[in-house]
Design a protein that fits this description.
2 domains; 6 helices; Rieske Iron-sulfur Protein; globular; alpha+beta; Naphthalene 1,2-dioxygenase Alpha Subunit, Chain A, domain 1; about 375 residues
Length: about 375
């Protein structure tokens, strides 16, 4: 997988990198791509303004190195692969998968400062995750997972990636917002029947959740095609947003006559759309998406048809989000307003700010002999 043109344009100016505070949660796992995207070729990409080069080593594992030679700062991705090492294309300094310099042409000694940073990588379910923050804090057990990803009763289909000229926070907020579906996706994922149906929000748990049911209504375009329903349905949307930016959208339909309880959604046609929102720069985001379904198992034609409908819907999101970002970058004469449906996004922004603040400071713990005694 070569670096998309959008990613090249979205890459940060190296002069802007450094120790300044960035608006990203870096101590987190982000999706770098699907397993199929990484082979022997050097693949440059940027995550949270961190440039890295990735490739699949001879043992099958994916390596991620800082994409900058410590000598003259040429990106290593402009060099070449030699076995399981990367040779800089300027003066030939060579680095192994651990970031250690193993060769400096023309001299025998290897300076201690001749190394590149490495980034932890985790691969599961055909997904490659990378940790752009402090490596010693990367715990593979904290990588997002859900039982259906390994359940043979569910069909897993890796979709595509959506390149969006917008800040990742706006992209993630859109994925915990059932209310926009009626207006942005009227022919695919929603229709007018849901415009005034109340949205429920729960923010107490690990994930922010927003949901609603639309009872006894005509099937939306998606389920008219794949549900085989002859009459009205009860349909649902559950949006789960896991910090910093992984979203699971549980949506489906069931025949109204079954009077299906909310906790028995598997009785209907149920689909999980998973969105792995990866910040590239402040104004550029990649949304890797896949879906899980309990219908049409093993049917590649159905997967292709669903992909086509998802692309239509997600392009509608892209158009809205890029237009919003463009306006956010313009001078503002007044503050934007917030309304009732913004409860989930507001809590999300607050939690992101807290995570960024926590990364910007170091907690030394309780002092042994405190000078100050706090009473609040």
């Amino acid at each position: 997988m070569g670096l998309p043109k959008e990613a090249v344009k979205g890459r940060p100016d190296p002069s802007q990198e450094g120790e300044r505070t960035m608006p990203f949660v870096r101590n987190a796992w982000y999706v770098a791509g699907w397993s199929r995207d990484f082979a022997e070729a050097l693949t440059p990409l940027t995550i949270c303004d961190r440039r890295m080069v990735m490739f699949r080593a001879s043992d099958g594992r994916v390596a991620a190195l800082e994409d900058r030679c410590p000598h003259r700062l040429l990106p290593l991705s402009k060099g070449k692969r030699i076995g399981d090492t990367v040779q800089c294309g300027y003066h030939g300094m060579t680095f192994d998968t651990g970031g250690k310099c193993v060769r400096v042409p023309g001299q025998d000694n290897l300076p201690a400062s001749a190394y590149v940073d490495t980034f932890p990588v985790h691969e599961a379910h055909g997904i490659v995750w990378v940790w752009p923050g402090e490596a010693d804090k990367a715990d593979p057990a904290s990588v997002f997972d859900m039982p259906e990803l390994s359940d043979p009763a569910w069909h897993l289909h890796h979709g595509d990636k959506l390149h969006i000229r917008a800040n990742y926070l706006n992209v993630a907020e859109n994925l915990v917002d059932p209310a926009h579906v009626s207006f942005v996706h009227p022919t695919t994922l929603g229709n007018a029947a849901s415009e005034n149906v109340p949205v429920h929000v729960r923010t107490a748990g690990e994930a922010i959740v927003a949901w609603r049911w639309i009872r006894n209504s005509e099937p939306i375009g998606f389920f008219q095609k794949f549900g085989g329903f002859e009459g009205n349905v009860d349909r649902w949307h559950y949006y789960y947003l896991h910090l910093p930016s992984t979203a699971v959208i549980d949506f489906g339909s069931v025949d109204t006559g079954l009077n299906c309880p909310e906790d028995e959604r598997d009785r209907g046609v149920r689909i999980f759309a998973l969105h792995f929102v990866t910040p590239v720069t402040e104004g550029y985001t990649i949304d890797h998406w896949l879906h899980l379904r309990n219908t049409a198992l093993g049917d590649d034609a159905a997967s292709d048809q669903m992909d086509a409908m998802f692309r239509t819907a997600f392009d509608e999101d892209k158009e809205v989000l890029e237009a919003i970002h463009e306006e956010e970058c313009r001078p503002q004469r007044r503050k934007p307003i917030r309304i009732a449906i913004d409860k989930g996004p507001n809590v999300y922004r607050k939690r992101i700010r807290e995570l960024i603040e926590a990364e910007a400071t170091e907690d030394l713990g309780a002092p042994e002999a405190p000078v100050y005694v706090h009473h609040d």
